[in-house]
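Blinded run. Sample ID left blank on purpose so nobody reads anything into the name before looking at the predicted structure. Input follows.
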Amino acid sequence: MAAIPELKERVRRLFYPAYESRMVRALPKDRIPQHIGVMLDGNRRWAKGVGGDSTAGYRAGAANIEPLLEWSEEVGVRVVTLWLLSTDNLSDRPPEQLEGLLRVIGDAVDALVAQQRWRIHPVGALDLLPAWLSAGLKEAEEETRAVDGMIVNVAIPYGGRREIADAVRSLLQEHAERGTSLEELAEVIDVDHIAGHLYTKGQPDPDLVIRTSGEQRLGGFLLWQSAQSEFYFCEAYWPEFRKVDFLRAIRAYAQRERRFGA
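Blinded prediction complete.
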């Protein structure tokens, strides 16, 4: 019986590259999402299934980030947002588990910087992170600022409600410095004013949001920006998410008729 999974894996390795190449060629170039958000979910459940601890799951998940970015680059995506840690995770994870996750994230970001291939942009409440990681994320952004490549938003720690609150706070502070009264601001404020203070300001909103692990909810990911996004939910846990899964998500997006809220 043990030979059956091995045989399936051999078949997959033999035939999937050709299948994936055909899928890439068949994608309509004018219907590729320019910005995709990815919820990298299922690392701990994957680890439990293979008999490993949570840190092993996080490391397996981190190893799949660079392939995802390469697949995105190959089809023409311009921006990828990776949700690596939520603001809730800072309080709902045991300290030893959280420490392992933060170390894995730090190592993963360092590896992306070393590539000098993508522009790293941290998005989230960096003030909630340990000083070493917050400083490392800011350095990653600075060290890749001049890279002429895809933008990679590293969402850590990220929460959609926190982002909107931060945007409003930044907007109020900006106008207070200008001497604008609350009454004057209330007369003119609109969605564009708030959008201009989001973590992703200046970027296109996500066309497609992918969540792995079979969960079918957003959990606050890109809460403001995803108002008109398309969603794709994949059963695979993040460490097992393959190129063919990614291409199926892109194909599903390309086949949909976007109504933009209508």
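Unblinding after everyone has recorded impressions. The beta strands are 35-39, 79-83, 119-123, 151-155, 208-211, 230-233.
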